[in-house]
Amino acid sequence: DRSKIFCLPGDRYRDLPCRLHVDITRRDHIPSPLTSSTSHPAVCTDCLVQRAIMDPAETLLSALGEIPVRGGQDVSSKMDAPSKVEARPLSKRLQQWNGAIESEFVANIPSFSFVSEPNEDSLAKLAVAVETLHGHLVHTVLSNPPLFSGNKELSSGSESGIKDESDVARGGIVLLNDVEADATTSRAAEAVAECGAARTLEDVEDDNEKLILTSDLLRACKNILRWTNQRRALAMRVRGQSGPAEAEECVANDETKRLRQPGTLRLYLVLLEGCSSHFQKGSTVLTHRDSVAQTASLALFHATFGAGEPVADVARSVLVGSKVNFIPSLARLVNLPHPLPLLISLMRHVHSLVGSEPVLAKRLDSAVAEGSSDCKDKDLASVLVATLAWTLRSDPPFPGTDPGDRRSDLAVEVMRIMFVLQLRHASNNDEVKNDNDMMTQIGILICDILQLPNADFRIYDIKLAAVNLLMDCPAEYGQFLMSNNGIPPLLAVLTLQLTTVVVERTGSGAADAAAIVPILIALTRLSAANDDVKKVIKEGIFPPEAEKGFQSKAREEKEKLRGGDRGSVGGLGAKNMSPLDAPRGTVRWKLLRLMTWTESNVKRCASEFIWTLCNGDATEFVLRTGFGNAVHILGIKGLVTIPKESTVDIPMS
């Protein structure tokens, strides 16, 4: 019963609930195991007993219907392997297991094995679970390769390469060593690839059962890989980056290696290519074949995701190498119409690759150009722009009312890829022109996005992604934005983000920087490039109706300095310690709070933004912000000298 609250003994956890008893309907009360290590206690005994939380590997073995023997030892007793498990019952058990672990992913509730350090027994069970799952998948594919290529005219006998059904018996593959397992999986992949792609639309009940089973097996592969990746990410967070020797050992001892081997990666790819339909772009209804393609894509993604993680890095190098040769296939797939969930998955592959290695972005560009017969100048950026345009302008009106309509997720993913490409191009002077070209193409789309209402959180997430692109926009783009009423929506984003950081959060950190720094940089860049844009933004921060009062106070402050009441500092024409006009709760008051934020990027970006609005006038800057808030940036600008081991000595009057 997750609605109950259990208080553990001990002062440290006296007022904190068990992490598995928080109300899952209150997302803000559910801490993530990857971001919060001390905000909630360990899982209580009552919770483990009542909810029977077990190691996912053990429950997966139970769902598969057998506990096989590995290395001469029975890893778990009291369960007998049935001689034959029919497809439908096995699918049902896998669906239950997949649903349970995916609900924990969504709710950020860690499974039991997240709570404590994994021991040898749990790792052995994980390896056996992976080998068993791998065996089921290979056997299912080898039993009828034409089914997964779309060619139902071929039989599943000699063409599949199977000489003896016992050759791929369920227990047999599990007991193979890794080399033999990889070879058998490669044979399964090639059997599907060699069957051709002659597609038929008739549905056969027996075929549907096999497709459903294959989809459930691939989904389980994806989930066990995702769970393992999260566990490793948590360990890396606690222990730090591993050295070369530790990384090599991690790869050698990877319990999920069967699901990341070259043959398995190749199998994921041929299932993705063979089962993906190209009949209706953006459909939210998946056929059984589409489900196989989507789950194969997701399994491939999680098998290779995680830049800097040794196991994922090795798998990704295999993925883009000659053994799998994923990049030409991905370039071809993103150019074709797909159901919406599969299209999102493909874009995540693009994001992962271009974000991990700069050279992969160039390879993708070349592959897209080579595979496009209709346009010689077609590249990855043009594909992204076309996809974003379809996302925003397709029917029904964006973002849609159907909960299954995930066009907003696709739009965010596409814009994140564009942002990564901008970062890659910015590091190469030869590619600066491409930055401007891409921004010109999506300029109208960004204006359309900014005009959408903020009431729907899906739209607001897209606006934040657009802000990231504006951090490195061409200088002339500000005028285009202003002409199309794009500045007021950006000021609205600034107001909401300031409220999130200054009002709703306590303290500071990386999350604060991620929330506020992009919009500060974007507005600073736009203001510095165009005086007309700067005027509009400045009036949004310092409203004209309040300027009369501010100017009156500013004259009085300057008169005090000229009258000799106080000496000047660094030649400044003002020395007020506090801002002259910043009522509590206003946008300018929240900005001034950021000028003394403990996170250095937040503090610097907020200060530079106001400095730009003041046209670099140090006197106006001090009058608007107060010398106490301004001293940090004034020191950076060289206008005041800040002693290294003491504070600035300002006489108080």
Characterise this structure.
The chain is mainly α and 653 residues long. The chain has helices at residues 45-51, 56-64, 87-107, 112-115, 120-142, 145-149, 170-174, 178-193, 205-239, 244-252, 262-275, 288-304, 310-320, 326-333, 340-356, 358-370, 380-393, 407-426, 432-450, 457-470, 477-483, 487-504, 510-529, 531-541, 544-562, 587-594, 600-613, 618-625, 627-636; strands at residues 69-70, 73-74. A two-stranded antiparallel ribbon has the order 1-2. Strand 1 (69-70) and strand 2 form a beta hairpin. The longest helix is centred in the middle third of the chain and has 35 residues, at 205-239. The chain is elongated. The relative contact order is 0.05. Residues 1-53, 67-86, 112-116, 151-173 and 197-205 have low confidence and may be disordered.
Write the layout of secondary structure elements.
Elements: H1 45-51, H2 56-64, E1 69-70, E2 73-74, H3 87-107, H4 112-115, H5 120-142, H6 145-149, H7 170-174, H8 178-193, H9 205-239, H10 244-252, H11 262-275, H12 288-304, H13 310-320, H14 326-333, H15 340-356, H16 358-370, H17 380-393, H18 407-426, H19 432-450, H20 457-470, H21 477-483, H22 487-504, H23 510-529, H24 531-541, H25 544-562, H26 587-594, H27 600-613, H28 618-625, H29 627-636
Antiparallel strand pairs: 1-2
Helix pairs in contact: 2-3, 2-5, 3-9, 5-8, 5-9, 8-11, 9-12, 11-12, 12-15, 14-16, 15-16, 15-18, 17-18, 17-19, 18-19, 18-20, 19-20, 20-23, 22-23, 22-26, 23-24, 23-27, 28-29
